[in-house]
Each structure stands twice: as C-alpha cells, then as structure tokens.
Amino acid sequence: MSFSRRALMMGAGAAGMAATLPFHRGVAKTDTKQYRLAATSATVNLTGDGHPNTAVWAYNGAVPGPELRVRQGERLQVIVTNRLAEDTTVHWHGIRLPNLWDGVPGLTQKPVRPGETFVYEFTPPDAGTFWYHPHADTLQQLGRGLAGALIVEEPEPVSGVDRDLLWFIEDWRLDDKGRIAGGFGNRMEAGISGRIGNTVTLNGRVPGPVLVEAGERLRLRLVNAALARIVALRFEGHKPLVIAHDGQPCDPYAPDDGRVVLGPGMRADLVIDMTGTPGQSYRVIDDFYRELTYQLVDLAYDPGKPVREPSSDAPSKLPANPLPEPDLTVAERYEIVLQGGMMGGGGMMGGMGMMGRDGATWAMNGMAMTGDGQPNMPPLLSIKRGASCVLALKNETAWWHPMHLHGHSFRVVSRNGKPNPRREWRDTVLVPPREGADLAFVADQTGDWMFHCHVTDHQESGMMAVIRIA
Ligand code: C2O
Ligand code: CU
Fold it and tell me: Could you tell me if 427 and 129 are in contact, meaning their C-beta atoms sit under 8 angstroms apart?
C-alpha cells in the first residue's frame, strides 16, 4: 500500500483506527477511548455508482457516522462539535448512564450551539449494540443522516462466531435527483405512520450483495435507525437466532415465522449459520408492510467449498449485563395510555386532554410534549429512586409505536395482559395498535428521563413525556 493511500485511510478517523485494534484485550478501569464527532453538512452517495449524490447532515461527513467501539468497562469520551447552522445534542440510545450525559436539550444539558463543542464522557455498563443520534430537531437531523452505531464489546470474544457484521438500517425519502425531500414534520403524516421513505440503506448504501462463505457463523448486529419505518426481515433459506434485543442478551431463540421485527430505535443481534449452497444467492426480504414487500439485500455465497461443516452447536447465551432485577411483588404499577392519531377511516381520535394545544397530534395520559420537548411541563410520572416499577402501556391508537425509555433497560413482562415467557430486556418496545405491554425495571438512575415514541413524527407531535426519578 502506498504511503498516500495509507494516509488517506488513517484520515478516515478514529473509527478506522479502532477497527484495526485487536478485538480482545484486557481493560484497565482507567482506560478511556476518545472519539471526535463533528455534526456537519456533507455529500455522500447513498444509491450507488452512477446515481446522483445526496446532500446530507452527517457525523464526520459519513453516513452512518463512525462506528464507535469500546469494551465493557472502558470509559468513552466523545468530543462533539456542532458545524450545523442550528443547535444539536447527541443522545446515546440504550446506554444506561448518568442523566447529565443523556443528550436531551433543555432537560439534561444546554443545546450545543453552532460552532460550539461539548464533551460527553461515560462508562457504558452493558456490552451490546447501541447507537447515537441527535435529540434536537430530531426529525430533520436524524432524517438528514445524523446517526451512528456504538458497539460495546463483551470482555471476552464470543466463541464460535466467525464474523461480526453490522447492518445499520436507514430510510430516506429521496426525490428523483437524489435529494432529500423536504416537508419534515408534515401534519398529516405525523397523524399516521410518520415519514416513511422510499430508499433503504445498509451502512449508508443501497446494498449490493453481501458476500458470505458456506459454513461460517455470523453475528449480525441490526440497528433500525429509520425515522418511521418498521422492518420485518426474513432470511430466505436461513434460520437466524436472536441472541440480544437492544443490546441486552436473551436466551437464543428463533423468531416467530423467522421474521426479525424492528421498530425505529430498536436493535437485534442475530447468530446466523451460513447453511446455503456455495455459489448461490439468498434473498433477505423486508415484509413488514405486506403490500410493500421488497428485497433488502442478497446473501451471495462464495463458490468455494465450505469453510467447515456448519456448526451444529447452538450458540451459547451472551454473558449477562449487570442489570438490576425488578421485584414484581413490590413494584408500583403506572398506567400509560397512548392516545391520538388518525383513526382507520380518517378523523382524529378523541379523549386527548391537551390535544391541539401545541399542535399535538398524540398524547400519553392526556399530556403531550412536542418538538424538542417542554421541560417545564410536569412529569408524566415521578418514581422514587431505587424503586421497582411497572409501566403498563396501553395503546388506544390505530398505529404501531416503538416506545423508548432513556437511561434504563426494562423487562417486557407481559403483552396484552398475557405473561411474556421470554421476559426479554429492551430499551424500546414495539406496541401494536390497540395492544398493551407491561415493562418492569428498577428506577436506579436519578434524573428527568425522556419516554417517547421513536417514530420521530409521533415523538415531535406529542407522544413524548418526562419520567422523573428522584
Ligand atoms: Cu433514540 Cu430519545 O431516543
Ligand atoms: Cu408512535
């Protein structure tokens, strides 16, 4: 490799360097990994060679932003500079951290003004797949490309896995010149499914075939970073096992129907054995919106002979993260009713106390924060620090809502009144129309925490509130 080529690659920034570090190393508690992120405008190619470029807003000019990697127990410092023409912040989605690093403008920090720099510093307690994105003007900033993955590695490498792949899923609404279409925050759209786009990218590109080898076992980290699109991935000819939701390990299991369903904000880690035939291709389909089924990508097998017999051992469970276990015998139960939006036949749902006041379309228990939030509004709930509690969500609307709690992971203990045998941990739960979900957790972090729908149009038009832990 020539010197200039090497220099160019080094210039790709800390993420490139991080990728060349050994995956596994002992970590002293004092180690700090430092990254720099600049939110800036940039031009990228989303749709492939020969297709027009797209003007975006992006971290370090890249879509997605650099993949940040730390080991569990390692301290992370991220120096964020705002080179946009408007305020921003960075939220570390799914990371359990002290409230002051949570990245919510006006609530946990002052907005980072254009030209300013803000330093985030925390130690992610949990290994897993997380991500980061702005929490200011979120619909537009996320929708124009500001997002990236944050991977917290297990202290020991996971045995039996040949490759660790990330599929960072984003959804764009492009016009025929490859430009991001305007109209963010369209009221009509906010009352239905939100801003669903027309171009889905994996790791910043409409993907070509993903090359695989027969016999290998992949760990696939999926992140749904779309504004509004829910995906349901089906791997033709393969049997993925889910090994983690939202960064938190679960007993490996085959999802119903082989479909991996992820609402905006949600992640899943999969183990997939490459049991296909060398030289063949297999489709990965997204059929969440049944009438809009499309092929996301192909798994293309190398024609060579299998690298080994496909593993017959079930993947072992990932090591548990240090999550506090809620005590359901004493847990306080809080009902949260999701309200608003359009009904099936048009017309607004009734029963929204503050509906219409700030242009709200959605609400929870009659309360509606809009835009970047109104931190002076009373909290939806106040919970005593250290208490076990259950958030009993009831979706009275005709739409799906991926509900995200900041700073905590919760167990989904029941769905629609029925105990959920898997009781998996998540930070974002997808609640189907007119269904419910009970979420149990220990309120162990003091502060004002956002609780909102991750369909960004819904969040910004009322389905957002603060849960106070004191
Ligand atoms: Cu990923 Cu409040 O968000
Ligand atoms: Cu929603």
Answer: no
CA-closest residue to ligand 1 atom 1:
93
CB contact set of 95 (below 8 Å; sequence gap of 6+): 122, 124, 126, 130, 150, 407
Report the alpha-carbon distance of residue 90 to residue 75 in Å, rounded: 17
Whether 86 and 138 have beta carbons less than 8 Å apart is answered as no
Indicate if the pLDDT at residue 330 is higher than 50.
Answer: yes
Q: How does residue 351 score in pLDDT terms, banded at 50, 70 and 90?
A: very low
Question: What is the average per-residue pLDDT within 449-460?
Answer: 98
Q: Is 458 in the pocket of ligand 1 (CB under 6 A)?
A: no
373: exposed, middle or buried (C-beta count within 10 Å: 0-12, 13-18, 19+)? Answer: buried
Is the CB–ligand 1 distance for residue 426 below 6 Å?
no
Ligand in nearest proximity to the CA of 398: 2
93 touches ligand 1 (CB under 6 Å): yes
- What are all long-range contacts of 354-361, with beta carbons under 8 Å and residues at least 24 apart? 355/462, 358/462, 359/187, 359/461, 360/461, 360/462, 361/187, 361/190, 361/191, 361/458, 361/461, 361/462
pLDDT digit string, tens, across residues 354-372: 444 556 899 999 999 999 9
| DSSP codes joined into one string, 388-403 | EEEEEEEE-SSS-EEE
Of the ligands numbered here, which is closest to the C-alpha atom of 462? Answer: 2
Q: Is 267 in the pocket of ligand 1 (CB under 6 A)?
A: no
